[in-house]
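Pasting as-is:
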Amino acid sequence: MGWVTVLKLESERAHIHKEHAEQLLETGHAYRCFCSIDRLRGLAERRRALGLTSEYDRTCASISTAESLSRSLGGESYVIRLRVPETYAPFTDAIYGRIKPGKTTVRHGEPAFEDPILIKQDGLPTYHLANVVDDHLMSITHVIRGIEWLPSTPKHVYMYSAFGWEPPTFCHVGLLQDNQGQKLSKRSGDVHVAEYRAKGYLPEALLNFVALLGWNNRLKSDVLPLEALAENFSIKELTKGNTKVNFGKLDYLQKSYVEAYTTSVDHEARDEFISSMVSGIQTAIATSFPDIPEILRSREYIELILEADRKNYVTPVKFVEEHDYFFYPTPDFDCVEANVYRDKMSGDDVIKGKEAAATFAKAIKRRANRGLEWDDAFIDLILDENWEDKEAQRMVQRSLRYALAGGKSGPGIHKIMMILGEEEVVKRLEEVRWYGRRGLVDDKGRVVMTWKEKKEDAEIDDEEEVVDLIKKNQQMDL
């Protein structure tokens, strides 16, 4: 559709709106207002000075029909205002029930009337007129909109009555808010569905997520495909008040649909879906790791990772971020998870971790000579041969996760080792960094400076000072 066509349609639409506004003029439900901008501004300032709201004083409402028409035909600028009644009639909202509006006139020694503008000086309609006329012409039966429009609804109901039309059912829903109670907006983050589609969220998950916002779902499960939503949704179940949007629910729904599609009995559909997941991950890898070897972005390698930790797949970008240790040459030992792990470590834990890594590396190097396969059973054998205590084995596996994945979550340690491969596992076990960005460990495995510095160590920046500190610690132990 070209711009010329768009402008023509908008012009025709504006003409229709103005025709309907003139119908209200003819029936006395509206009047032309010729007040200048300066007069209206002065009126508003005077009322504000008195501590009053800035309603209109109906100066032009007393102008005769003949004079009003003559002045408009003479080219004088004007707007068309709705002449509101002293009290609006009650109406029913589908959620909030019977609404009985208050008086529309406010007098504190100054005449004041709501009388909203319907047609502006440029001939274009305001929302108050356009929404009523458009909805009627489109045979709209239900108007569902935000709660902020509830105070304006009495005006709209009154206009329906003035036109002699049957009003639709009005349903005012709460606002969507973030965790701080602020209305969702572009300023506070993504608000458009299209943005989440671009990130890789499934349309089914998004539809399910949006449908649950402000709806009192009484079913046992929140995972509701379109058919289930259509069958169970009811306006009567919409909740009063605003709704805080929990995007964690979106991730939960996404995982549920991913699980359903990747385990579908329809093999062709399942393979097609998994293929789309792999392609999305490859695109995310190309963005985050443009220089990694081809084998680490191959379909076979990605499918191994997906198969090992499909339950944690949300979107391609998130999956790559959470499993970046499969694509880095070494784990990110400065990531949040690594820092949290080290924060809980004592010097003794460091020594045990280093011993466990060395034991595993040595055992892996001897695997072939022992005639053993590189598989899960071999990993279990190393654990059983060196740590009989199950709690000790769990500690070792935590150390291995730190050494191989920087402490990040994901597949079990057996799966991680099988995916990385024997050679890469040995390399990482021998090169693991047991301290943080600002940490060093002395020759006895004690953390001299951790990633989370003690207050008294905060000023130590020079490497020579750190070396001196290590020497002092060693002398104290002699």
